[in-house]
């Protein structure tokens, strides 16, 4: 074999290779060595290893140590970008026992070390998963669904496609019920008895995400379980996998996921054998995935693959008719849970129906539970609501020597501010209080000295 062929062969290796002669003069390096260390072949070929060290290309030469000790030497070095490499030098002797070459291999173990760290985190995650029961959907108690005109179309579309293998992309703000809808799809799919698994792609670092999705092979890295760990892409086989916040999946994993979806098989981290898999994929996102495609943050081919049927869940403020039923439903749920018997006052229901609910149903549930556990009376009143929901407008404290007129004025302001907060507009507040809208606006102007100019009718903000 000539030198050219030999070079081609070592260039095909994934590990870096560095070869010196018996004196320690560099004969060649391969492409992987150039890639891993950033040191180019033409810069070091012909140089003695001591010159390579002197020139600052490397801090310590394994070849020189092999030359000294005439036996294999391995050490771990940190190079630029804090990458960790394992360098192993081996002496090669000719038939008479004289040193002929020193062959050094260089392996970048940054990823492996990361994966080891990931494995520890994964272990934690799996414990959490066990504790919180990411279990087959049949074990999950059916939850009552509140559906209105605004969401019925989404649920009907989901039901129609549930039994097919079409991939569904659920879009909606946080807390709008994307996971709930995915579960609904699973329950109406061809494999409702299979597992329903969910992974939030935004919640963990890339290496951990990869180990979680793909699993890893036995002994993939030091400290890995001797049995290896199956990934969610494998465990979900025969069931449904929800990839939440898919827009946060790193590009490298997007490519790997695409391959799994095309080939129905996967390669665990550190594995050499493909494993077959077949699951129902549902993805969810609160982002504009198409925009991410345009910005090059999300692969276009994967986008088309996962969004065969896009389903949108509107925000709660776009489906206000669900607010009261949801408030009543979750009040019952939390009353039962905490053995209370609370009810909403009508004023609360009116105010809450108009509130914008940036956290959507999840925020509504949290607020309801908070009201139930902190309730001072059986009826939840406006003043119990947190100030971001209902501005806690209190009459100012009156001084002992204030006139009756000033005190009445103060009390009047309290009544008007409360009516405004409850009914939202000066027109509605005036109607309820039985006064002219213009009188109310004039009074407000005097008190606040800053009624919005445009507001003569519907638009006085509750909070200003
Ligand atoms: N139609 C509904 N009727 C009753 N409760 C619902 C409905 N939709 C969602 N919920 C409840 O609202 C809460 C939030 O829903 P879910 O977790 O599905 O939202 P999400 O959009 O997946 O949130 P995130 O984007 O933060 O993951 C859950 O506790 C869920 O049970």
Write structural notes for this entry.
This protein is of the alpha/beta class and 464 residues long. It folds into three domains: 106 residues, Beta-Lactamase (2-Layer Sandwich); 202 residues, Rossmann fold; 68 residues, Orthogonal Bundle (Helicase, Ruva Protein, domain 3), CATH 1.10.8. The protein is built from 19 helices and 16 strands. The protein has a five-stranded antiparallel beta sheet, sandwiched between helices. A five-stranded parallel beta sheet has the order 7-10-13-6-14. A hairpin with a 5-residue loop joins strand 3 and strand 4. Helix 14 crosses helix 16. It starts with a helix and ends in a 16-residue tail after the last helix. The C terminus is likely disordered. It binds adenosine-5'-triphosphate. The site of adenosine-5'-triphosphate has 17 residues, from helix 8 and helix 16.
Corresponding CATH architecture of the largest domain: 3-Layer(aba) Sandwich
Strand order of the largest sheet: 2-1-5-4-3
Note the quaternary state here. single chain
Q: Largest sheet, described in full?
A: 5 strands, antiparallel
- CATH level 1 name of the largest domain: Alpha Beta
Helix-residue proportion: 40-55%
Tally the beta strands: 16
Bound molecules: adenosine-5'-triphosphate
Number of domains: 3
CATH topology of the largest domain: Rossmann fold
Distance between the termini: 84 Å
Which runs of at least 5 residues are low in confidence (pLDDT < 50)?
Answer: 124-142, 450-464
Coarse shape: elongated
Mean pLDDT: 84
Radius of gyration, Cα only, in angstroms? 33 Å
Number of helices: 19
Structural class call reads alpha/beta
Strand content: 15-25%
In CATH, the homologous superfamily of the largest domain goes by the name P-loop containing nucleotide triphosphate hydrolases
Keywords: ATP-binding, DNA-binding, Nucleotide-binding, Transcription, Transcription regulation
Domain PAC: 69-121
GO molecular function, one term: sequence-specific DNA binding
Pfam families: AAA_lid_14, HTH_8, PAS, Sigma54_activat
């Amino acid at each position: 074999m000539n030198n050219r062929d030999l070079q081609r062969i070592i260039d095909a290796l994934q590990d870096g290779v560095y070869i010196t002669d018996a004196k320690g003069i560099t004969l060649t390096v391969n492409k992987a060595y150039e890639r891993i260390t950033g040191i180019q072949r033409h810069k070091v070929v012909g140089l003695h290893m001591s010159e390579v060290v002197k020139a600052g290309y490397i801090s310590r030469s394994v070849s020189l140590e092999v030359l000294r000790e005439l036996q294999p030497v391995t050490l771990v070095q940190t190079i630029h970008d804090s990458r960790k490499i394992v360098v192993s030098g081996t002496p090669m002797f000719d038939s008479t026992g004289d040193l002929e070459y020193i062959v050094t291999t260089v392996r970048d173990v940054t990823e492996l070390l990361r994966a080891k760290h990931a494995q520890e985190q994964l272990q934690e995650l799996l414990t959490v998963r066990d504790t919180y029961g990411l279990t087959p959907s049949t074990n999950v108690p059916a939850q009552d669904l509140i559906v209105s005109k605004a969401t019925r179309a989404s649920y009907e579309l989901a039901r129609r496609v549930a039994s097919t293998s079409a991939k569904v992309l659920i879009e909606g703000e946080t807390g709008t019920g994307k996971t709930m809808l995915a579960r609904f799809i699973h329950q109406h799919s061809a494999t409702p008895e299979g597992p329903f698994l969910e992974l939030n792609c935004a919640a963990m670092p890339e290496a951990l995400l990869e180990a979680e999705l793909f699993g890893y092979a036995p002994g993939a890295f030091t400290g890995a379980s001797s049995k290896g760990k199956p990934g969610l892409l494998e465990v979900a086989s025969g069931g449904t996998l929800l990839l939440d916040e898919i827009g946060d999946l790193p590009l490298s994993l997007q490519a790997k996921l695409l391959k799994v979806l095309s080939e129905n098989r996967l390669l665990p981290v550190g594995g050499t054998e493909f494993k077959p898999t077949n699951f129902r994929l549902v993805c969810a996102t609160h982002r504009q995935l198409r925009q991410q495609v345009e910005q090059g943050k999300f692969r276009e081919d994967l986008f088309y693959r996962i969004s065969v049927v896009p389903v949108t869940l509107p925000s709660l403020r776009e489906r206000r008719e669900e607010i009261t039923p949801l408030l009543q439903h979750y009040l019952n749920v939390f009353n039962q849970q905490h053995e209370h018997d609370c009810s909403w006052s009508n004023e609360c229901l009116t105010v809450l129906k108009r509130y914008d609910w940036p956290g959507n149903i999840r925020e509504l549930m949290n607020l309801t539970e908070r009201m139930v556990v902190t309730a001072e009376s059986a009826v939840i009143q406006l003043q119990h609501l947190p100030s971001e929901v209902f501005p806690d407008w209190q009459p100012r404290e009156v001084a002992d020597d204030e006139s009756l007129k000033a005190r009445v004025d103060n009390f009047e302001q309290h009544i008007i501010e409360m009516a405004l907060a409850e009914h939202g507009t000066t027109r509605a507040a005036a109607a309820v209080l039985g006064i002219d809208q213009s009188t109310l606006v004039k009074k407000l102007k005097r008190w606040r000295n800053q009624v919005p100019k445009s507001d003569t009718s519907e638009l006085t903000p509750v909070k200003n």
